[in-house]
């Protein structure tokens, strides 16, 4: 919680206390002044009455005048001090009233701030306020970073125009333009990258594929002549250039040509199993099969190559029959010595395939820089997701293997993983 919030809250609480406590003491002061005036008038009445009595006893007043003056004095007293006698008698009650005011004031000083803090904790929106402030700070920081990135990119472009043979510089310039979403400039930079590469047809093909990708973003997903031309140049050098295959798959899917989309994406899985976006590509293939109303074929090679773990995934009897067959199933492997963070490998399946056996290896890696085969031991987990989201959510079903599992070469005994828990929160 921010200091500004608490200062503001304290000021408001003090104002609230002022509205409660001030009237108690102001009323008490006014009452005291009123009673003091009444007592003074009463004393003056008694003094004047005693003076009349002395004058009457001394013979200065006859009885008729004496009685008349007493009646006039009494009438005047009734006008000036209507509750005089009651005021004098009520002095003990005034003392009790003063004590009550002090008790109420002390109770208010304790109860009002405590109640305000507690009720705000229950129904307040401090989390939303903090989130809004964080978003503002992030936006300001992003704006500063964007300005710095644009300035640095302009400087890099100027230097590269003087030294067009610098292939690494053109690649960096293209990626920088992609980050700041200047896709037209990014496509141009990747074209210059392709032109600067001489003896590497594969690298030149990748450059043209990246140029096609930037032009595709610029056209907002339209396979226009610029995109098609860059794809043709990339595939003329390498028919399996993955950026071009990915764009062709996306375009085919958007045209509801799901068979062709599957063909392009499955080719990526075949030629680039360690592609950084391999998980998203597999998800796209699965969605295409679902649109066709067909079950996605299970990838189970007859010969296992490379290090990995074999998992037998089952579901507890308590949950059988209540989970729809189309519920998404994730089988995950994480490093045994790392808490949290992204998994090393993820296989996306469906509940209808349970029970099943699956081999987790480098085909299911999340990143080319973090391979399952390079991990000595992994922790295994399976999750049935209602939403199809890999992040755990309330209502999902989950299971895990308690002990770390060694990653081994070739065929090894499957590890049994039972989905036996439903997440509450």
Automatic annotation (TrEMBL):
Location of the Cytochrome c-type biogenesis protein H TPR domain: 147-274
Domain Cytochrome c-type biogenesis protein H Ig-like: 309-420
Any GO BP annotation: cytochrome complex assembly
Spans annotated as Disordered: 386-411
PROSITE patterns with a match to the protein in the record: TPR
GO CC, alphabetical: cell envelope; plasma membrane
Main location class: other
Superkingdom of this protein's organism: Bacteria
SMART domains: TPR (SM00028)
Subcellular location(s) of the protein: Cell envelope
Keyword flag Kinase: no
TM helices/strands, residue ranges: 6-26, 101-121
Family matches, as InterPro entries: C-type_cytochrome_biogenesis, Cyt_c_biogenesis_CcmI, Ig_CycH, TPR-like_helical_dom_sf, TPR_CcmH_CycH, TPR_rpt
UniProt keyword terms in alphabetical order: Cytochrome c-type biogenesis, Membrane, Repeat, TPR repeat, Transmembrane, Transmembrane helix
Signal peptide: none
This protein's record includes keyword Membrane: yes
PANTHER family per record: CYTOCHROME C-TYPE BIOGENESIS PROTEIN CCMH, CYTOCHROME C-TYPE BIOGENESIS PROTEIN CYCH
UniProt-recorded name of the protein: Cytochrome c-type biogenesis protein CcmH
Native source species: Marinobacter salarius
């Amino acid at each position: 919680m921010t200091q500004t919030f608490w200062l503001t809250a304290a000021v408001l609480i003090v104002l609230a206390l002022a509205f409660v406590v001030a009237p108690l003491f102001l009323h008490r002061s006014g009452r005291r002044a009123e009673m003091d005036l009444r007592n003074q008038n009463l004393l003056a009445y008694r003094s004047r009455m005693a003076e009349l009595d002395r004058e009457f006893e001394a013979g200065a007043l006859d009885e008729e005048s004496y009685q008349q003056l007493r009646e006039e004095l009494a009438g005047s007293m009734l006008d000036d001090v209507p509750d005089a006698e009651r005021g004098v008698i009520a002095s003990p009650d005034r003392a009790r009233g003063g004590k009550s005011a002090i008790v109420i004031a002390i109770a208010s000083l304790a109860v009002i701030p405590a109640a305000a803090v507690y009720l705000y904790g229950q129904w307040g929106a401090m989390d939303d306020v903090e989130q809004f402030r964080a978003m503002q700070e992030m936006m300001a920081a992003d704006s500063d970073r964007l300005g710095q990135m644009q300035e640095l990119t302009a400087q890099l472009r100027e230097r590269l125009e003087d030294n067009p043979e610098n292939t690494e510089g053109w690649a960096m310039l293209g990626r920088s333009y992609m980050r700041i979403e200047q896709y037209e400039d990014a496509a141009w930079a990747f074209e210059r990258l392709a032109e600067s590469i001489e003896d590497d047809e594969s690298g030149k093909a990748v450059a043209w594929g990246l140029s096609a990708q930037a032009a595709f973003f610029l056209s907002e997903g339209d396979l226009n002549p610029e995109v098609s031309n860059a794809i043709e140049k990339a595939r003329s050098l390498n028919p399996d250039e993955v950026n071009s295959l990915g764009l062709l798959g996306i375009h085919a899917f958007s045209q509801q040509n799901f068979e062709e989309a599957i063909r392009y994406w499955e080719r990526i899985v075949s030629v680039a199993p360690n592609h950084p976006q391999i998980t998203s590509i597999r998800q796209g293939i699965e969605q295409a099969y679902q649109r066709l109303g067909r079950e996605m074929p299970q990838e189970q090679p007859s010969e296992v190559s490379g290090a990995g773990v074999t998992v037998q995934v089952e579901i507890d009897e308590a949950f059988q029959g209540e989970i729809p067959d189309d519920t998404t199933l994730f089988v995950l492997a994480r490093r045994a010595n790392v808490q949290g963070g992204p998994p090393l490998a993820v296989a996306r399946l469906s509940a209808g395939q349970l029970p099943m056996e699956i081999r987790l290896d480098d085909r299911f890696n999340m990143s080319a820089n973090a391979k399952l085969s390079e991990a000595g031991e992994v922790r295994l987990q399976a999750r049935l997701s209602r939403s199809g989201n890999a992040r755990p959510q309330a209502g999902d079903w989950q299971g895990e293997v308690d002990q770390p599992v060694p990653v081994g070469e070739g065929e090894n005994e499957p590890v049994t993983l039972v989905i036996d828990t439903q997440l509450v929160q």
